[in-house]
C-alpha cells in the first residue's frame, strides 16, 4: 500500500499485488465485450463462466463493488471500505483492459473524515 498525505487530505492507493485482504476477482477475469453506450460489460471468469454487468449492478466478489461507469477502455466500481482504525470510507476500483481483454486493476481509497484541500495561504509580512 502506498500512503500519500497532503494537509487536509489522506489518500491510500492499494496497488495490484498488494496485501489487500479482499479477493482480487477482477484481476482474473477477461473482458469479452463492452457496450459503453449501454453501460454494459461482459466478462469471462477464471472458471470460464460468462457474466454481464450493467451500471448500478453489484459485484459481490469484490466486497459489494457497484459498477459506476463503463467506457471503451475502462470500468469504474465503487464500494465502502473500512480503514485500519475502523473509519469507513469509499474506494474506487478502476479496471483497465487491453485489446485481448486482459485486465489491470487499481484501487483508490479515502477513509475517514476527508475535508477538501485548502490552497496555500500567501505569506503575510
Mean pLDDT, as a whole number? 79
The number of strands is: 10
Order of helices and strands: EEEEEEEEEE
Largest sheet: 7 strands, antiparallel
Summing up helix and strand content along with how strands pair, one would put the structural category as: mainly beta
Instruction: Tell me the domain tally.
Output: 1
Helical content class? under 10%
Strand content: over 45%
Descriptive report:
The chain is mainly β and 125 residues long. The protein has one domain (2-111). The chain is 0% helix and 50% strand. The chain is built from no helices and ten strands. The strands form two sheets. It has a seven-stranded antiparallel β-sheet with strand order 1-2-10-9-8-7-6, with no helix packed on it. A three-stranded antiparallel β-sheet has the order 3-4-5, with no helix packed on it. The radius of gyration is 17 Å and the shape is globular. Mean pLDDT is 79; it is low at 1-21.
In a few lines, what is going on in this structure?
This protein is an all-beta fold and 125 residues long. Helices cover 0% and strands 50% of the residues. The protein starts with a strand and ends in a 14-residue tail after the last strand.
Topology readout:
Blueprint: E1 2-6, E2 9-14, E3 30-35, E4 40-44, E5 50-54, E6 58-59, E7 65-70, E8 74-82, E9 88-97, E10 103-111
Antiparallel strand pairs: 1-2, 2-10, 3-4, 4-5, 6-7, 7-8, 8-9, 9-10
Considering the chains and any ligands shown, give keywords for the structure.
three-stranded antiparallel sheet, 125 residues, single chain, seven-stranded antiparallel sheet, mainly beta, disordered N terminus
Amino acid at each position: 500500500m502506498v500512503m500519500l498525505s497532503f494537509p487536509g487530505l489522506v489518500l491510500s492507493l492499494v496497488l495490484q499485488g498488494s496485501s489487500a485482504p479482499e479477493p482480487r476477482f477482477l484481476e482474473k477475469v477477461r473482458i469479452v465485450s463492452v457496450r459503453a453506450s449501454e453501460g454494459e460489460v461482459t466478462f469471462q471468469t477464471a472458471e470460464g463462466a460468462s457474466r454481464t454487468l450493467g451500471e448500478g449492478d453489484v459485484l459481490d466478489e469484490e466486497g459489494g463493488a457497484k459498477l459506476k461507469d463503463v467506457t471503451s477502455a475502462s470500468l469504474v466500481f465503487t464500494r465502502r471500505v473500512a480503514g485500519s482504525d475502523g473509519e469507513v470510507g469509499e474506494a474506487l476500483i478502476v479496471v483497465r483492459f487491453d485489446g485481448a481483454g486482459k485486465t489491470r486493476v487499481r484501487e483508490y481509497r479515502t477513509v475517514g473524515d476527508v475535508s477538501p484541500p485548502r490552497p496555500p495561504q500567501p505569506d503575510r509580512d
